[in-house]
Write a structure and sequence with these properties.
By secondary structure, the protein is of the alpha/beta class. It has one domain: 3-Layer(aba) Sandwich (Rossmann fold), CATH 3.40.50. It has nine helices and seven strands; from the N terminus they run E-H-E-H-E-H-E-H-E-H-E-H-E-H-H-H. The protein has helices at 21-32, 44-54, 68-82, 105-133, 154-173, 209-221, 233-242, 245-254, 270-278, and strands at 12-16, 36-41, 59-62, 87-90, 137-141, 180-186, 226-229. A seven-stranded parallel β-sheet has the order 3-2-1-4-5-6-7, sandwiched between helices. The protein is globular and about 50 Å long. Residues 281-289 have low confidence and may be disordered.
Length: 289
Amino acid sequence: MPKQRRSLTGTVVAITGGARGIGRATAAALVREGAKVAIGDVDAELAERTAAELGGGTIALPLDVTDRASFAHFLDETERRLGPLDVLVNNAGIMQLGRFADETDAVAARQIDINLHGVIFGSKLALQRFLPRRSGHLVNIASTAGKAGVPGGATYSATKHAVVGLTEAIRGEIRGSGVETSVVMPVPVNTELAAGLVRGRGLTATVEPEDVADAIVDALQRPRHDVYVPRAIAAGVRVGALMPRRLAEAIGRSAKTDRILAEADLDARVAYEQRVAAGEPSREHVEAG
């Protein structure tokens, strides 16, 4: 028997990196389901415009996920204005590409701060609210790069592996608590973060932010931990993990998964990479697979 879908009407949801891309698409999908949504973003002005465009009582708040105090204020203000938090979507993330041996420590540190420390901060702060209530749903956006090391994005892959492992460990710790977890693992998503990537089929295909948003909504309505986007790649990822390394790597080369990041068109990524390196508000601040 399939699980009965839960209603999301009145559910209070906070989304990081919510001004554009996956964050915005997820907010829009949840508003359509009747949820009360707060979007947090380092680009507060853009977040305000997005909230106004989404309507449905959506609120926008400034948020720097690398600052624990900022994250705590984001969730406190969400609860003050919308009510007790039911769902946190840890979506904010960046990706800077290049050969690992040439990567500066500053580039690595910034990806770790946003992609991992931000998720850790948010997860702890959300669980401190969820566990006493014995309810809530923590959604962490990872990537298919969290299941395999992708050349050209070693540190990015490392952060996404960490998010997958973190969420699995949390799931084990809170089992039986009434709190749900989901880790979302999309292939590359058609946002600015994925500009210039090599694309094809399967794991090198590209999905739209709305596809990820729909998968998140479905995971909230019918809770499940592993959320692959598209769902069809789940079997391939699992089978690949059981294969001998040489065979798995050969299949990956044949499918060009080793070229997705390594052969990206860096000219197409200049504006994004410069903004991220400078620490300025990006037009995205959202995740791609």
